Structure formats: C-alpha cells, structure tokens
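G.,

No rush on this.
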Amino acid sequence: MTSLADNTTNFIQNMPKAEIHIHLEGAVQPGTVLKLAKRHKKLDSLPSRKVDGLRRWFKFVDFPHFIQIYLTIQDLIRTADDFALIVYENGADMAAQNIRYREITVTPYTHTDYQDKGITFDELMHGLENGRAQAKKEFGVEMRWVFDIPRNFCMGENGRYNPKIADKTLAYALEGQDCGVVGFGLGGNEVGYPPEPFAHAFEKAKTNGLLSVPHAGETMGPDSIWGSLKALQADRIGHGVRAIEDPGLLATLKVRQIPLEINPTSNICLNVFPSMEAHPFRQLDERGLLVTVNSDDPPLFNTSLVQEYNVLARDFGYDHSGLARIARNAFVAAGVAADVKSKLLKEFDAWVKEHR
C-alpha cells in the first residue's frame, strides 16, 4: 500500500470536515461497548472483557458478523444515559478528527418499539440532546439527526407492506425537529424492499421541512435510486454508487446536483465493489456529480472519516485542492439551518485559503 506524504496526512487531519452519513449505533467504539456492558451487567454477551479483544472482534469478517456486532451494540443501549454517553463520545471522536459537523442516523423504532428495553421516545430524545449539548459545550462540534425507517421490518406476515412502522418513525422525526432532527431516511436491506411503498411518509416529511435522505444504490442498482428520486423526492442519496451503471441516471443526478453520500471502505467490506481500484468514486466526481465521502459504521469497518480522505488521496489520486473541494461538498449538502451552514462554510473557506 502506498504511503502518503506527511504534508498530505497533516492536511487531511487538520482540514475542517463535515460528515453526513454515519450511523449512531455503528459509530460506538469498543471501549464504549465495554462500558455499556458493565453498566447493564451484560458482559457475558461479549466475546471478550478487554478492549483489545473487542477490537479484534470488531474487525469485519462478513455481513452476518457485522449484523451480530450491530445487534449486540443495539441491545446494550438501554437508557437515556446510554444515549447521552454514545453521543458525547461521538463528539469527542469528531474533535479528534477535526469534524465540525455531523448528521447522525438514528433508528428510533428499533429502540423504543421493536425490543422490550423499557425506553420511551422521550427518554431517547432526552439522551440524544444531553449528549449533543455536552459535546457542543466541550468540543464546539455541531450534530444533527436523521431518523430512518428500518425497511426490513415493514412487511407483514402476508408479505405485504405495512405502513405502521414508517408512520411511527415519521411521527418521531416530526416530534424531534425542535431537537435537531433535520432528515428522514430509509435504511436496511434494499433487496426485496423497494422505496416506492414509503412515498406517503416521505411526502409528509418533506412538507414539514425534513430532507429526504434514503439509502439507495448500494446493494441494489439504479432502479433503487430512480425510485428514491421519483417516489421519495430524495434530496440526497445514501450511497448511490451504483448510479454508475445507468448513463441516464448519471445525467439526472448531475443536472439536479443531488448529493451522493459515498462510503468507500464500507462499499468494499460489503462487496458492493471488489476493490478500491474498481470503486467509481472518481468517475462519479469527474462526471460532475456532487459527491461526498463518509465513514458509515467506522469501527465496524476499521475506518474513520480521516481514513476515508486518506483513501481519496492514496487510491483515487486526489491532491490537496481536490480533497478540499470534496470536503466542501459535505458542508454544502448538510441539512443544518442556513445560519449555521453559512458559519461552517465561512470557517472552512478561511482555513482552505490559509492552507492553499
């Protein structure tokens, strides 16, 4: 593997960054998992009682292994204080990487309704807000939330779409707008769960000022993205990398400047592409699409946002100017209020001018 020059690694580390595609549960670090397991007397649910052992367990093997870890983490987040802890530590991670803004995806239904953990939506929001406030006070970082529908849970026993979970998630998202919810998402496995049945929920979300930010074009091809654009009126596309398979779709995404939330390392780990050499990030960028880089579930894929920028430099050949241009895209695509976005962009542009 080619190493990067010190001036490039320093540039990437010090550059102010924004991230718009990262999952709260998937961002919990092994040390925090151990804290939560001790707090809830669930150490027996873990394969190791040491952080180093958990780091080895976290190392991605295959998709079933990824799901096993994800569900274990989810089961350990059981109280408002747990949410406050993982959000605060997310903020500490942001400070360490000089990430000034993050939009973090949360799936409230899986905490408040799917499992009998005894946590209410109000308690969940209270935890998110406490963690966010503490992180902002100590680190000066900005966080906002995307609440997403777990599409896999939305099919009834007869195989037909059941709107109950989508409607519940929408209600949570609308209620949470005063506490930083800026986007409405659609997560889970795309295979067998197309976007069209969720159109009613996304229409109401957009009417009430939320961004439409569904996952599409990751494990399924262009049809998933087309469906998200047409049925869900998508403002951004989570992943979207398989747009490369459809010239007409590429043209539409370019003209409309629909941001793509791209996660290169995640794409390789989940076999969306066999290698970085085969990944279309640079092609999508050079065709004029608005691309951003993100880390998705960083500890589970042994990555970080800094590492994803290292990938852009090392594997895709981006120089400092190109890295800064991609980084600016994430601030532009952010769903945060205009005054905060303007402040963040002004700070970013000033830093780039000073370090050009």
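When you get to it, here's the other one too:
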Amino acid sequence: MKVLIQSARILDPNSPFHKKTRNVVIQNGRIADIGEKNYQADKVIKAEGMLLSPGWFDLGTGVGDPGFEYKEDLESVARAAAAGGFTELAVLPNTQPAIQTKNDVTYLTQGNAGRLVQVHALAAVTRNTKGEELTEMIDLHQAGAIGFTDGLKTIWHTDIFLKALQYLQKFNGVLIDHPEDIWLNMFGQMHEGITSTELGLKGMPAIAEEVAISRNLKLLDYAGGKLHISRLSTARSVNLLRGARKKLPVTCDVAAYQPLLNDAALASFDTNYKVNPPLREKRDNEALIKGLKDGTIDVICSGHVPQDVESKNVEFDHAEPGIINLQTTGANLTALAEYVKWEVLIEKISVAPRKVLGLEVPVIDVDAKANLTLFDPECQWTLDEKNNLSKSANSPWFGKPIKGKAVAVFNNGRQKIDD
C-alpha cells in the first residue's frame, strides 16, 4: 500500500529536509519520494501541524516477560509502544530469569523479523542483577545484546563496576547504570524533603543519587570505557554530568515525566506517583529542563515500568515504584515543549538513543527505509480502560485529559495508522 503523509514538518537533523514542511510517500517499506507535489496514494494522512521524525527509540523499557508476564509481555509492550510512537525498544534485564544468557537474548529478539516494533536486549551486567558476579558479556554481545546494565538496580559493587568498564572495552560496549546508593535509600519511599517530613514517609535523599554518580565518573576516569547514566533526577546530578562531559565519554538520560512532576504530587499518597528515582523538587525540575536545553542530557526515555494492581493498590509503604508511560511519553514531550524546542526534544528520543548504543540511525530521505513516527502535538485524548494497551494501568494520567499523540508509525515494512 502506498501511503502519503501530507504537509508534515520534518524534524531530523541528519535529513536534507530538516525543519521543512513536505509531502512524504511511503511504499514497500521505503520512503519513495519527498516533495511538494500532489502525489497519488492509497492512503492519505493529512498531517498539517504534525511532526515527522525518525522512529522513536526507548532506551530502557521495563517489561515483565519472561517471569512477570501478568504485568507486561512482549506483545502488550509492542502494542503500547506503537501506539505511543516508538518503533524500537531497548528492554531492561529485570525479568525472571534476568536477561543473562544467549538464550535469554534470543527469546527477546527472535520475533523481530515480523514485528513493527523492534525489541533489543539490554543484558545484565551481573548474574540475576544482584551485583555480585559478572555475566558472560562477550557471549551476550555476540548473541545480540546492544548494551549492558542491571536495569532498575544499581551496580553497587565498586570492583564489579570497574571490571565491567574494563571488560566492555574489548568490543566497545556501553555500560548503563541506574545511580543509587542503596544504603542511603534503604526503606525510602519518596524524595527526602519538606513533603516527606510532612507526610511522615522515609525519604530518599538527593545525595544517594549524586554519590553514586560521583563514584561512577571517577571510576570511568580511572578505567576508561563508555558509560551511560540512566534517569537523572537531581539538580546536582545534572551539574556533575555537565562538568564531566568536558573530558569523559559519558552520556545520560531522563525519564520524560521527571522534569514535569515534583514531590508535592504525593501529598494524596497516590502510589501511581511513586517511582525510583523519586519525584524531586521544583528546582530539580528546572535543572533537568536546563540540562535538556543545553545538551547536558542526551536522551529522553519513557521510564515505562509496569506494575499490576496488587503492586500498587496497597499501602504506600508497600507499593512498588513505577509508571507506565509508553503511550503517554508524547504528552510529556508536548508539556516539555513549553520550555524546550521541538527539534531538540525529538532528537533526544529518536537520534540520540541510537547513537549512545552505537546503532544505525534512520534518516528521512528518498529511498531510505521507512522508520518513522508521525506525531500530533495538538491532539487531545484520554488514556483509559478502552485504549490502554499495556497490561498494567499504573499511570498518574489514567482517566485525565492530555495533549499530544502519535498518529502513525512505520518500520520494518509495517505500519500502524490511527483512523
């Protein structure tokens, strides 16, 4: 089927059509033509005011498959991702068993030939993500793992962290770490501050993240290698990375919701706002936005961590952290666009994550493979029981009106187009 995307604004820093409004023809999985002519097509998408970019890539998606399929499986996460505008996912290893063998990597990736949304494996650095014993990372790399991380868990063991940096240099691999001092955060429920004191909840101090980042940067300087810090949340973390980037090969990301929400949201004890790293203070929000604007923060990720009802509909102290956010990341971007230019935001969710992982970056040009996301920043909609494609519903935006929605995605010769 020939599809015409009519009058979309193209945002792709690698494209000769960057920031230009053009008609784009897609046929047989490729971009057949780009121009201003009135092309004929089987399907016409009127895209005035919409943004066309390389397909969005999520750097670090939480999935329950294998082991916790009742929270999210590979089929449900692919559906939610496509609806949210993502064409590729790098999946975290926090499953049961953890993604730590060749067979585990193959399990995740074996269906890619027939998928619209491509699934990539981020393999565990340590066995069972416990931080005590290294996995066979060279074998995992050869099996197709595109990065190495303990995912939602920090690599707390200093010697293991150091050896991982050295080991990965054999094939120019990237080490991804969730920075957290687990002892400082022990029993913590939310950001340590005035709100946590008022609510009587044990706090997770900003310094728990900052100490871990400082340690990681010093080890990187000592050992060499490539390091990516995931999900920044504090103002000082941003400043640490801003200084380090001048001399070290380090990159970082932020969850799309983190600059938009702060700890005041937890005043009602709504467990859907309980995340790790926790929602911080307004000054941290401002620092994260500044980091996005000045290039300190390379990547925006969804921060998608599905949790079933039994994990959220409990007392706050017992609730598991996490937000489902694949379908609502676009709405987060629309809110962030009040402070950061669209071309900057789009680059951080499409081009930058692939660069961090050393993957091929799609380009919007004639005869290129069609790996595209069409996004309408003005679309008003509501995430509810009817259109939620995740198996879980732990979202603070559930049932609330939001703005910004993916209209179509194209990848691997396949497509999803909203009616």
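The first strand starts at residue 3 and ends at 10. The radius of gyration is 21 Å.

Enjoy the weekend,
O.
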